[in-house]
Design goal:
Elements: E1 2-6, H1 21-31, E2 35-38, H2 70-80, E3 85-88, E4 91-92, H3 98-112, E5 116-117, E6 119-121, H4 126-132, H5 139-155, E7 159-162, E8 167-171, E9 184-185, H6 190-199, E10 202-203, E11 206-209, H7 217-234, E12 243-244, E13 246-250, H8 256-266, E14 274-277, H9 286-299
Helix pairs in contact: 1-2, 1-9, 2-3, 3-5, 6-7
């Protein structure tokens, strides 16, 4: 099993230690981290229309009050590491013109020697969409068009795309990623599940740890993945082509024991060959982040 970690991108302490990101990436690689990841937050609204987690809280956690740029974070990690995969879990694709997104991601992939694993989502915060200048009601079709445009920019030259929401005039696009990056999608709603089945290389489920209780692997991973593969077969795809990368997400009050127990719980699930541990709510410093990562890797 490949075990990765989120980069110290969010949080009042670790985000203020941005000058330590390179050291974190190097030391995490030396510890044996198999991948390094970023998320994509733009705002921490004072009066949010939707809190976090959506449907659970009415507020935005303090950790989201301090945000580092995901593209810059990955570029730093790409420059100072040699082996970990570098992923996004997730970029809110509807915010970004596809040509600009392709340029940033292609650069990171080339700097890293082909280690990019882009994960995309549709976003959930109305205030973030307002700040990005994109209507939230268009997020689904904008994501679909972004994926179509990226496919053109990453596989063709000249490349061209004309959609309702995004367009790319015919352009020479000779600088390509080392290999076409495998695209993973976050999905929970039925329409999003079908999007994974129809066009993604894999699914990005989340395993929230709100306490020390047992993990229901069947409900959270096995059954949804079986459903996605059924949908893939309906779309004429080989269901076995669709992978999975699981994010383990402990909330405030979580412990390393909780994380290790969760890893052991999912270790017998055949689809879980790669997981990410997100320590955003637990780390009190870069050194603390690394200490926890070392213990998790040793025990898991």
């Amino acid at each position: 099993m490949r075990i990765g970690f989120s980069l110290p991108q969010l949080g009042g302490v670790v985000a203020r230690q941005a000058d330590e990101v390179a050291r974190f990436a190097r030391e995490a690689e030396a510890l044996g981290a198999g991948s390094l990841w970023v998320g994509d937050r733009l705002l921490a609204p004072v009066n949010p229309t939707v809190g976090y987690p959506p449907g659970v809280n009415a507020t935005i956690p303090d950790e989201f009050h301090h945000i580092l740029d995901p593209f810059a974070m990955l570029a730093v990690a790409a420059a100072v590491t040699e082996t970990p995969l570098l992923g996004t879990n997730v970029l809110n694709a509807p915010w970004y013109p596809p040509a600009m997104l392709a340029r940033s991601l292609t650069t990171i992939d080339l700097v890293s020697g082909g280690r990019l694993v882009p994960g995309f989502g549709s976003g959930w915060s109305p205030e973030e969409f307002q700040a990005a200048g994109v209507p939230i009601a268009e997020r689904g079709p904008r994501l679909d068009e972004c994926l179509d445009a990226l496919d053109q920019l990453w596989t063709a030259s000249p490349a061209e795309y004309q959609g309702k929401y995004w367009s790319v005039p015919a352009t020479h696009a000779k600088l390509k990623p080392v290999r076409r990056p495998p695209i993973y999608l976050a999905a929970f709603a039925p329409v999003a599940m079908r999007r994974v089945a129809k066009r993604a290389d894999g699914w990005l489920p989340v395993l929230p740890l709100t306490g020390p209780g047992p993990v229901d692997v069947a409900e959270l991973i096995t059954n949804p993945m079986r459903h996605i593969r059924q949908l893939a077969a309906e779309e004429g795809r080989d269901p076995a082509e669709i992978g999975l990368i699981l994010r383990i997400y402990p909330f405030p009050g979580g412990t390393v024991d909780d994380i290790v127990n969760a890893i052991h719980s999912v270790s017998t699930e055949p689809d879980v060959q790669h997981l990410i541990v997100d320590l955003m709510f637990m780390a009190t410093s870069i050194d603390h982040y690394l200490e926890m990562a070392a213990e998790i890797l040793r025990r898991a």
